[in-house]
Amino acid sequence: MKVGQDFKDKVVYQIYPRSFKDSSGNGIGDLKGIVSKLDYLQELGIDYIWMNPIFLSPQNDNGYDVADYRAIDPQYGTMEDLEELIEEAKKRNIYLMFDMVFNHTSTSHEWFQKALQGDPKYRNYYIFKEPKADGGMPNNWQSKFGGPAWKYVPELGQYYLHLFDESQADLNWENDEVIEELADVIRFWLDKGVRGFRFDVINEIAKSSFADDPNEFDGRQYYTDQPKNHDHLHHLHQLSFPKDDPYFITVGEMSSTTVGNCQKYTDPENEELTMVFNFHHLKVDYKDKQKWTLMDFDFHELKELFFEWQEGMQEHDGWNALFWNCHDQPRSLSRFGDPARYPKQSAKMLATAIHLMQGTPYIYQGEEIGMENAGFTDLDQYRDVESINAYHILKKQGKSDEAIYAILREKSRDNARTPMQWDASDNAGFTTGTPWIGTNPNYRQVNVEEALKDKDSVFYHYKKLIGLRKNHPAISRGRFIPILKEHDQVYGYIRQDEKETILVLNNFYGKDCAVDLGEIEELDRFGTLISNYPDQDLSHHMNLRPYESAAWILHRE
Ligand code: GLC
């Protein structure tokens, strides 16, 4: 059986249900649509599907505003559809991971509604605070989606905290009753056969102080990675995580985190989480740490971050989630590759660079066929609340529409959310209706049907990488050793266990470069494991072609 006792050789595929496959013709992807594509995912070889939230929700933040953690939003289908999905996936040795949004609920959640009606029990589920003496907000914290993080409720004479949209009210994890409620939700889905969970912005659940923030005026120093965050996760773990299910995994989405904290979150002894997403490597194209700016990525910073996280986590028995893409990030091929000149080579290079590291790889829908940024040219085409807020904020700062569109085109989360490109028929075969968000016009060339026909496609490269992880313990469990630290174009590393040494080289640019492997011994005994150009032998002084990437293996018996 493919799924084994240990998650370390497994690969996760992320589905953004809204944009994956619509079976009903209403323009929104749904659960039956996912069922119809399971054979495709089996062909790719993945082990888990992480689905973004499908719970009942007003959809102000596409489901990250949950109104009922136990109900399926009708736009995605019914509980029976979900049960069918779990069952059908299981037949293919694929298991479901759910996305738990436990930092906040929608303001339409029953708990919040009861709080608004003045029920003290439920008021204590959230973070309500008195105004300052002058009637102003309790502090100067900013919402991550722009504007203040507090919203006034006249009926109660108090403000509530929302680190995200004002329709997403932060839960009060200091109240044990809240943790018990959430643990109950976990148990509910475990009973349905869900085998893993992704926890949304889970390093922000503990708020240690509500003081004004004198530094960045956004407050994050008081609510990111606070010591109590670890206690809360441990508590949730004790109350609800199964102790004897070898397939059960959890991943925490960690915002502005540190290696030190992530070691603690994932050290198995601490009983918190299996692995973590950190986003530092996806900020290397932020000018002055600001998202809504334009800048080429800083390659040396990218490498340093990978090295720091790979080495830091392995030293302390921690575990990374490995990823370039998700529903919150622009497409990696547009960002770090060259889809115009080297679509295949650069997509494959990015895949190899990530998949052979230590950790669990996550593939975001469409990445495996080389999907690109949306290319939208008008505000009307955007759907994402964060992007639309950003437009208004940048506009207020005096930027022209043209300048703002140029930024949104590179940075908007909607770049990841355009419909999955299945074939060259209308709307990329995603829907027979009108898709909720525009399709990337390149779907006539870039689509699953084409990818499956071409044995040299990006798809088959991903498939091969997934297979390699399962067949080579040096990849799934071996040590990570950085090499070529100072090289200006190549990200290189070695993976090693008692039996195998695997050498990985990735040229991140569209031009040739020389590589000096002077210090590595027995190069003539290595054989090619995977490459994105016709094979080349290793030598002490070698040349890599544009976006060339390959791994070579030495067996030591
Ligand atoms: C996470 C999600 C993102 C959502 C936010 C608020 O960052 O990935 O999509 O908007 O949390 O829940």
Summarize the structure.
The protein is of the alpha/beta class and 557 residues long. Helix content is 29%, strand content 17%. It folds into three domains: 7-103 and 176-374 and 412-463, TIM Barrel; 110-170, Oligo-1,6-glucosidase, domain 2, CATH 3.90.400; 478-555, Immunoglobulin-like, CATH 2.60.40.1180.
* Record field, number of beta strands: 22
**How would the global form be characterised?**
globular
* Total domain count: 3
CATH architecture of the largest domain: Alpha-Beta Barrel
Mean pLDDT: 96
- Could you estimate the helical fraction of the residues in percent? 25-40%
Can you lay out the helices and strands and say which pair or pack?
Elements: E1 12-15, H1 31-36, H2 38-44, E2 48-51, E3 55-56, E4 68-72, H3 79-91, E5 95-100, E6 104-106, H4 110-116, H5 120-123, E7 128-129, E8 150-153, E9 158-161, E10 168-170, H6 176-191, E11 196-199, H7 220-223, H8 227-240, E12 249-253, H9 259-266, E13 275-277, H10 299-315, E14 321-322, H11 332-336, H12 343-355, E15 360-364, H13 385-396, H14 401-411, H15 448-453, H16 458-471, H17 473-476, E16 479-483, E17 490-496, E18 500-507, E19 513-516, E20 527-531, E21 541-544, E22 549-555
Parallel strand pairs: 1-2, 1-15, 2-5, 5-11, 11-12, 12-13, 14-15
Antiparallel strand pairs: 3-4, 6-10, 7-9, 8-9, 16-17, 17-18, 18-22, 19-21, 20-22
Helix pairs in contact: 6-8, 9-10, 12-16, 13-14
The chain binds alpha-D-glucopyranose.
Alpha-D-glucopyranose binds at residues 61, 64, 101, 164, 200-201, 253, 327-328.
